[in-house]
Amino acid sequence: MAKVGANELPAPERLPVSFAIVDNTHLTEAGVRWLCAKCRRVVIITSNAAHPARAVGEDNLAVMLQERPSLAEALRRLRAEHGCERLTVQSGGTLNAALVREGLIDFVDVVVAPVLVGGRDTPTLVDGPSLTSVEGLSRLCALELLGCEALRDSYVRLRYRVGRPS
């Protein structure tokens, strides 16, 4: 959310959506307040005991502090404590990789933009540490194509079901 300007933007019109955000160092107190003004409910998941969200006293804000980060535990708590039944993940490659490798993703929906970006240090859909062991390879999941849709301006939407490791 910091990348889209949540730390500097004026207060938005409130939307009927909730956000669960994994963040340790990117959001400022102003950014957290902006999110609270924008969303029905905001849950900040962090292992940073000094996260700025802890100083914000908004009624629609919860801070989920994890001494040892665990995505599986965060998802369990989102369901148990906040009634989250479904979650749409919009993240970067590192978090995507962790969610996929831990078997926490059921579906992948990708919109491919008509532009080529490359380079050794360019982030991808699935980043994070490289797989270097047979155990890591055994956790790979095949994707089953559910749909392919041509969108405006040469964009393409691909929808997949994520299989389970064999």
Features of the shown structure:
166 residues; 2 domains; 6 strands
Walkthrough of the structure:
The protein is of the alpha/beta class. It has two domains: 1-86; 88-166, no CATH class. The protein contains four helices and six strands. The strands form two sheets. A three-stranded parallel beta sheet has the order 1-2-3, with no helix packed on it. A three-stranded antiparallel beta sheet has the order 4-6-5, with no helix packed on it. It is globular, with a radius of gyration of 18 Å. It starts with 17 loop residues before the first strand and ends with a strand.
Can you give me a brief rundown of this structure?
The chain is built from four helices and six strands, in the order βαββααβαββ. With 166 residues, the chain is of the alpha/beta class.
